[in-house]
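Slide 14.
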Amino acid sequence: MSLLTAVGANLLCSFGTAPAPLKVTSQSTVLCEGKPAGTIQDAAPMTNLGPFGMCTSMANPQVAAATAAALGVLTPQPCIPAPAGTWIPTKPKVLIGGKPCLTQDCKIMCSYAGNISITLPGQSKVNAN
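Slide 15: predicted structure.
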């Protein structure tokens, strides 16, 4: 059983240092615990996905440049999310407004390596079976 993900869910990047909240903009009519439920389309950087603190991925050009300038000492830089597409749906047949729902076990790949996952779904009652 997977819980639907709602506004305020906690997201975490595997190379980030802090969680970020989810902002749902793809729809506003389907609610779970009074909050809009997310869909796989809620993947826009800085609109749906906020910064994850500092980025530690050497695939990020800013981190690579700062690390090179520090003579090879890893030098994290501010995280600006760079999702590679939409969320990967785990319940593709459960639709919200014609789009697959976003559940707590969905992931999205980051263009700078790693992935973004959902650590807290933002609600605790509505299952997507």
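Speaker note: The mean pLDDT is 95.
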